[in-house]
Amino acid sequence: MRPNGVLFDMDGCLVNSEVIYVHAWQALFEQKGIPISRERIETWKGLGWKRIRAQFIESGYTLEEVEALYHERDTIFYDKLWNNELQYMPGILTFLDYLDEEGIPYGVATSTYRKKASKVLTHMELLDRMQFAVYGDDVKDTKPAPDIYLEATAKLRIPKEEIYVFEDSSNGILAARNANLKVIQVLNEEDYEELDGVEYRIKDYKEMLGKW
To answer: Out of 8, 97, 145, 196, which residue is the most buried by the measure of CB atoms under 10 Å away?
Structure first.
């Protein structure tokens, strides 16, 4: 079915920042000798910082220690951003052009907080293309809770059955499903898992041009 509105997660759906975050965490933990596996880091995809921070604190870290780790992780991430290591997800610009031509409104719904997400979207020249953005600090609870998608759906002002969501992570897919929205999974260029509860899966947004 052709949608009348589209919502995008940011990390791993518009740009490959999800992979960059994983690399940044890995580099930091290896540097400090912290025994956290890549598999554990992968479970953080789609989660807001508040939820990740809570996991650290439950493991015995103090709030000050956790915030220091977060700051160091962000230093690594921003170095990669300013060095233009972030890339567009395959075909996304062509797909946005298509949505514009068809008059289909779209926005971004991300667990990443406004300060960081707006920097990423601005640097990648995507923020001005979005009709709106909902960030992790705009809502009470982040993914997998449905809050972000409920807020984004309200901004679209169209029935939920006419909206499609593009997500890459299990937490994001669950959030969209909890909001009673249809989901398309975006598969990243590294390790990925074909997740349940989606309409279909794509590796390149150009695949969508023949579907709608």
So the answer is: 8
96, 129 contact by CB (below 8 A): yes
Nearest to 122 by CA among 63, 178, 81: 81
Residue type, 201: R
Co-location of 179 and 195 in the same domain? yes
For residue 144, whether the previous peptide bond is cis, meaning omega lies within 30 degrees of 0, is yes
Site of tokens 């990423």:
120
The residue assigned the tokens 């982040």 is 142
Which residue has 């230093």 as its token pair? Answer: 75
Do 43 and 9 have their domain in common? no
Same domain, 152 and 66: no
Q: What stretches of 82-162 adopt beta strand conformation (E)?
A: 106-109, 133-134
Instruction: Find tokens 């709106």 and name the residue.
Output: 132
Q: For residue range 154-188, what is the model confidence (pLDDT) as tens digits? A: 999 999 999 999 999 899 999 999 999 999 999 98
**What is the number of domains present in the chain?**
2
